[in-house]
Write a structure and sequence with these properties.
Helix content: 40-55%
Strand order of the largest sheet: 1-2-3
Structural class: alpha+beta
Order of helices and strands: HHEEEH
Shape: globular
Largest sheet: 3 strands, antiparallel
Number of strands: 3
Distance between the termini: 33 Å
């Protein structure tokens, strides 16, 4: 069923993440986390999907630094769009 709706790989990733946190493996996985400086020019509170060391305390983002010029403009544009979308939703709620 999950294969038909496209969720099989996500559930595998979730189970791997849970196992790694539980067993404090310290392995590297790509997960969504608060930026906190992982990508240098994005705000600390931005959500980013980056390589993280997985510990019993949760994922610890590995510093990515600056992205290549070809990617940085696109990422900044998408982050701005997402922030505007959240701002509209906060202002108008579910009425829109």
């Amino acid at each position: 069923m999950q294969t038909m709706r496209g969720g099989a790989k996500y559930s595998d990733a979730a189970c791997n993440l849970i196992q790694s946190i539980y067993n404090d493996t310290g392995d590297i996985q790509y997960v969504d986390v608060r930026n906190n400086g992982a990508i240098s020019y994005l705000p600390a509170d931005s959500a980013v999907e980056v390589a993280c060391r997985i510990t019993a305390d949760g994922p610890k983002p590995l510093a990515t630094g600056e992205l290549r010029l070809q990617l940085s403009g696109y990422v900044q544009m998408m982050k701005a769009f997402k922030r505007m979308t959240v701002g509209v939703f906060r202002r108008f709620g579910a009425c829109i």
